[in-house]
Design brief:
This protein has four helices and two strands; from the N terminus they run ααααββ. Helices cover 62% and strands 4% of the residues.
Length: 152
């Protein structure tokens, strides 16, 4: 966790403190890169199609409020002392991690068979992915590559 690392590094002072802050910053940035690339994909992957718009809006709103409010909140905590700031951030992060672990989506694999042992009929239907096995009828009224699914 980066918060205790920044707190400890800041307490070193001098060149050792600067080097420690740089090291923690590199680790923190690597974590941010990993998180940023996967957070929206996680929301999309764990949300039913009919709720996707609301889920993405809620996710982005929460992120935006956090970015907007964090300078004032962090400065308020820092005014009480660096220990209060870093301890509060650490407690909030641990609380969020416990909540996600407790109430987050269940991402365990339920089908223990190897992928090559599964058949196309084993896949779980997904409303967000079109069924590529549906029969298609070609249009005879034009010179394009238009095709329409056959209903019924």
């Amino acid at each position: 966790m980066s918060y205790p690392g920044f707190w400890a590094a800041g307490g070193l002072g001098g060149q050792a403190g600067a080097a420690a802050i740089a090291l923690v910053s590199v680790l923190y940035t690597a974590g941010e890169i990993i998180y940023t690339g996967s957070a929206t994909a996680l929301v999309v992957a764990t949300t039913p199609a009919h709720r996707l718009g609301r889920a993405l809006a809620r996710f982005q709103l929460g992120h935006g409020i956090g970015v907007a409010a964090s300078p004032a909140a962090l400065m308020g905590l820092l005014a009480w002392g660096p220990g209060v700031l870093w301890a509060s951030l650490t407690a909030a992060t641990v609380t969020a991690a416990v909540a996600i672990h407790r109430w987050g989506p269940d991402d365990r694999v339920r089908d223990e068979r190897a992928p090559d042992e599964r058949t196309p009929d084993d896949r779980v239907p997904d409303d967000r992915v079109p069924d590529d096995r549906a029969p298609v009828a070609s249009s005879s009224t034009g010179g394009g590559n238009s095709a329409a699914p056959v209903s019924g």
